[in-house]
What does this fold into?
Amino acid sequence: MSNSVKYIFVTGGVTSSLGKGIIAASLAKLLQARGYSITIQKLDPYINIDPGTLNPYEHGECYVTDDGAETDLDLGHYERFLNVPTSQANNITTGRIYQSVIEKERKGDFLGKTVQVIPHVTDEIKQRIQLLSKNNKYDIVITEIGGTVGDIESLPYIEAVRQMMWEHEKDCLVIHLTLIPYLSAAGELKTKPTQHSVKALLELGVQPDILCCRSEHELDLNLRRKIAKFCNVSMNAVIEARDASSIYDVPLLMQAEELDSVVLEKLSLSKKSTPELKTWKRFLKRLRNPKTDVNIALIGKYVELKDSYKSISEAFIHAGVSNDAKVNLNWIHSDKLDKSNIEKKLSHMDGILVAPGFGSRGVAGKIDAVQFAREHEIPFLGICLGMQCAVIEFARNVLNLDDANTTEIASKTSAPVIAMMEEQKSISDYGGTMRLGAYKCQLNPKSNIGKAFHSDLISERHRHRYEFNSEYRDLFESNGMIATGINPETGLVEVVEIPKHPWFVGVQFHPEYKSTVDEPHPLFVAFVGAALKNKKK
Ligand code: GLN
It folds into this structure.
């Protein structure tokens, strides 16, 4: 057995949205369960430095890591499956690659050479892939290449893969994810798009070792044989990737197709023992057999694109399982919510979540939703902007500060209950400049959030510019909204609650980023628990 780090590349063909991230995460889960230490990296071919400046309608949620990287939502899947934190090194974009190459050029690092895609850009890409294998922290690095083979943008990445395969032949493996469409008119599964997609890879000098074939129907032996023959892969390397009812089924489906053992064989790695995946299976069993269900409203302004709230919806799946309940998420557009329809839309909800966000669109509807939850004693969780809306609502309707607002929306408000953080005031750039990443928070142990956690000192991830204005803290507390989570270093108010309400919690941080299958997030678990209690009532 070789001791060198192994590299697995996951590319995609035919169309986007085939679920490379889930296949990568599922394979990683299986290899992790066999005792290997794994990390997964996503290379995104767009020119933004990171997805932090992207509107969620573009690529869905921006996922934030402990070290404050604003990343692609696939990193959320990696963490949810592996239960291992990722970092900035796990998500690289073309923008970041070029930025670094250009900085080096300005410093004179290229010693008078003409700077070119090959070798300078491809060297930078290879370096970023190999960076993760430094210090022998991982046995295997899985690199998912964003986009679809044939895209102009992904050419340098495929070229970097080709070079890596040439330089480290025995340590590299390429998995190509393709589509086998079913033509109902012909009543047949079709392999041609896959053949073309493999040809497109071959033109770039890359022969895939394994094909994962997304399909709505079973791939029979003949079809597998045909794919193997036309695409130069062994029969056992044609892996069927059938549509699954839950993304959490995919590791077991891949195990049934022996994806992990084929990978280990091809990389000459020992198989160790076949993983039992006991905890995973227990999770799936509970997921499939809920004892009850619960209705939760998710109020947000991007609800047409559910990927915008990926980590939140996944955290509800985890928390539902912990409560043996199916969480029915009711996606409610904050833009379309107002006093005239709120009763109809929210009165049958067992819990209400007001989502994070930026800017003024949809905020009025969010504030109405908070008021409804507060006055009707419906369990409430406000995340980031959702927490800020809870503070504004309380200020307006309980403290009678009619003009209360966040300075993000009304810079001249006479009651800036949410205001820009001091350190943010001198910043003019948008990219990567928010308060980002993990910060400690000291909890009041008697509060709802304090009871949800085992420890009073927690660490949660942030992504914001505005904060509760502590000048108002006494006024809020003497009227029934109290600060139950404080940053121990800065004194910033990170959590607010209304103790008179059955369960009303607003958090400045994003608990959803840290919820995993192995460790459902305590705050989501407690919120779903409170919603269930409310339902019984
Ligand atoms: N827009 C708000 C801020 O910057 C909230 C951000 C968020 O919800 N992530 O503080």
User: Anything to note?
Assistant: Residues 356-358, 384-385, 408, 463-466 surround glutamine (CB under 6 Å). The chain has a mean pLDDT of 95. Residues 117-131 form the longest helix (15 residues).
